[in-house]
């Protein structure tokens, strides 16, 4: 006896009730809604990310160098280094107070 279309559907009905299959279908439907960037947009955004990453790495390296110089001078008892660190602490506290007042 030949199977009808309803028999084929009935034999695979467990696929429609499976949570994994439903999840994959929903994921596929959501991915169709995504606005994918063009190749040029992707290249431009990648360049921006690389430039910002390198700039932040250089800034962090420079700040690390300055703090190591200050700490080395503080340990050695250098008056200029101690004065510079006190100035930086006071300037940091003042900047925090000013920014806090502007935020309120």
Question: What features would you describe in this structure?
Answer:
With 104 residues, this protein is mainly alpha-helical. It has one domain. The protein contains 5 helices and no strands.
What topology emerges from the helices and strands here?
Layout: H1 5-11, H2 13-17, H3 19-33, H4 39-76, H5 79-103
Labels describing this entry:
single chain; mainly alpha; 104 residues; elongated
Mass-distribution shape: elongated
Count of folded domains: 1
- The quaternary state of the protein chains shown equals single chain
Helical fraction: over 70%
Mean pLDDT: 85
Query: Given the structure, what is the number of helices?
Result: 5
Give the tally of β-strands.
0
Computed CA radius of gyration, to the nearest angstrom: 31 Å
Largest sheet report: none
Q: Span from first to last CA?
A: 80 Å
Low-confidence stretches: none
Order of helices and strands: HHHHH
- What structural class do you assign from the helix and strand content? mainly alpha
- Strand coverage percent: under 5%
């Amino acid at each position: 006896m030949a199977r009808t279309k309803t028999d084929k559907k009935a034999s695979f009905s467990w696929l429609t009730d499976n949570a994994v299959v439903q999840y994959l279908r929903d994921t596929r439907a959501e991915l169709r809604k995504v606005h994918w960037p063009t190749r040029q947009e992707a290249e431009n955004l990648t360049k921006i990310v690389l430039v910002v990453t390198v700039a932040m790495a250089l800034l962090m390296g420079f700040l690390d160098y300055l703090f190591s110089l200050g700490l080395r001078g503080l340990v050695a008892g250098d008056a200029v280094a101690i004065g510079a660190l006190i100035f930086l602490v006071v300037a940091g506290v003042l900047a925090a107070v000013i920014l806090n007042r502007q935020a309120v």
